[in-house]
Design a protein that fits this description.
The structure holds 2 protein chains of 2 kinds. Chain A is mainly alpha-helical. In chain A, about 85% of the residues lie in helices and about 0% in strands. Chain A is elongated and about 70 Å long. Chain B is globular. Classes of the chains: A mainly alpha, B alpha/beta.
């Protein structure tokens, strides 16, 4: 019953490899960017806060697919030749960054201000307070939502296929067009995506139970 | 050691401190009494510059707190100078404000290690001594969540003492405690007073004020209404507002 899937599996798995590359790059760089922006949003500089707020606001109001299209066509518009994967990957990184920034920002702000007062009254300055008081606690609060946004980003790499970038979903549609065995192909693709995401889901669930107890 | 001169502080349109002046000598224990909203906590927070203020002067050991006032107006101190000042002024808060992700002893070590750069082993040894002093030697490796309110507050006192401050500020440190836990905290504060620590204590515990204070300051609505020795202030209760305030606690006070 799954003969078509069987014979095309190698091709699909190659697509899966591209998806994995995209996922690692997007989640890795997007999370780093977002954390940096999130911390920036809590500084005393009004300019920094306004900038990050604008960034978060704008990007959360646009569909990820539109951002990816923009990324794809932005470089040629300025006369630049950039690899399609890089263009779409960058778009997704910027997009994920906005969500991670908001998670980071609100995790940091959720630390009770009394602890900051106590740290300041010991003579601690902002860098030390951030490192010793705020970030250790904010990190625990942020881990679960960050893992969730990472999961979402991985699944969103499938939109790259719409923009014209070759990865798992693109490969799947090619095979379906050729063989017309849509159901079994997409069933297989579903399993592959699930296997890619499963470790992260487990990590998210585990971190929720283990780290939230710490206080 | 501490001189406050004509201190004024507003939160937006609301003036909270309306020209407060007083001084505290080295080794003196000053208790500040007054109704909620009288500006007592704000006063403390101005002294260690957790809050800034609009006008007036605060000096600790001659050094101006927060600002330099000169012929051309005043300029704000850098955060570095403010932080340095706060190393010398210990503060204990009503809501303890312990760091929940660190054990009791790690909380006490926080200041010496991360502000003064003391080596961890040495800091730990000193912290253990301080925890012992407040009666919590065996709780050193417990997290705050596992400690009672009174125990957490005593850890907070040890944490402030770890920086060897010149002055200790206590901001209603027993107000959030169950009554049976209040005594253990007051005992520690009393001991500190006997050892000669300069202290400003904002509290509602009038018995404590009578026993420990060298001087009582009564504040209401942003001004100092009266100040004097406990005997004079509490026994003769001259001014109307103080009388009203004490009457609220009279049942409590007379019973003791």
């Amino acid at each position: 019953m799954f003969t078509v899937l069987d014979s095309n599996l190698p091709y699909l798995l190659q697509g899966a490899v591209m998806t994995l590359w995209l996922s690692v790059a997007v989640v890795g760089l997007g999370t780093l960017l977002g954390i940096a922006m999130g911390i920036l949003a809590t500084t005393r500089s009004r300019l920094a806060r306004a900038f990050v707020t604008g960034y978060i606001f704008v990007l959360r109001g646009i569909p990820v697919l539109v951002v990816m299209f923009l990324g794809y066509y932005a470089f040629p518009a300025f006369g630049l030749h950039v690899n399609a994967y890089v263009a779409v990957g960058l778009a997704q990184i910027v997009y994920l960054g906005a969500f991670v920034a908001e998670i980071t920002r609100s995790s940091i702000l959720s630390i009770p201000v009394g602890q900051i007062a106590a740290a300041r009254s010991l003579g601690m300055r902002r860098p030390a307070i951030l490192r010793q008081v705020i970030l250790p606690q904010a990190a625990r609060i942020a881990i679960a939502p960050l893992l969730n946004s990472a999961l979402t980003a991985i699944k969103q790499t499938s939109y790259a296929s719409v923009v014209g970038v070759w990865e798992l979903t693109y490969a799947a549609r090619e095979v379906v067009e050729r063989t017309l065995a849509a159901f079994q192909i997409f069933l297989g693709v579903m399993v592959i995506y699930f296997l890619i995401c499963y470790p992260l889901s487990l990590a998210a669930r585990w971190s929720e139970s283990r780290l939230s107890f710490a206080h | 050691m501490i001189e406050v001169h004509d201190l004024r502080k507003s939160y937006g349109p609301l003036e909270v401190l309306k020209g407060v002046s007083f001084s505290v000598e080295k080794g003196e224990v000053v208790v500040v009494l007054g109704p909620s909203g009288s500006g007592k906590s704000t006063l403390l927070r101005c002294i260690n510059h957790l809050e800034d203020y609009e006008s007036g002067e605060i000096r600790i050991d001659g050094a101006s707190v927060g600002y330099n006032t000169g012929a051309h107006g005043r300029s704000a101190h850098s955060e570095t100078i403010n932080a340095r000042l706060r190393e010398q002024v210990g503060m204990v808060f009503q809501s303890f404000n312990l760091f929940p992700h660190r054990t009791a002893i790690e909380n006490v070590m926080m200041g010496p290690v991360h502000v003064r750069g003391v080596a961890k082993r040495e800091a730990r040894a000193q912290a253990q001594v301080l925890l012992d002093k407040v009666g919590l030697a065996e709780k050193a490796d417990q997290y705050p969540a596992k400690l009672s309110g009174g125990q957490q507050q005593r850890v907070a006192i040890a944490r402030a003492l770890a920086m060897q401050p010149k002055v200790m500020l206590f901001d209603e440190v027993t107000s959030a405690l169950d009554p049976e836990l209040v005594g253990e905290v007051l005992r520690v504060i009393r001991q500190l007073a006997q050892e000669g620590m300069t202290m400003i204590v904002v509290t509602h515990e009038i018995h404590f004020a009578r026993d420990v204070a060298d001087r009582i300051i009564f504040m209401d609505d942003g001004v100092i209404v009266e100040q004097g020795t406990p005997e004079r202030i509490l026994s003769t209760a001259s001014a109307g507002r103080l009388k009203l305030f004490l009457r609220r606690y009279q049942g409590d006070y007379l019973a003791g």
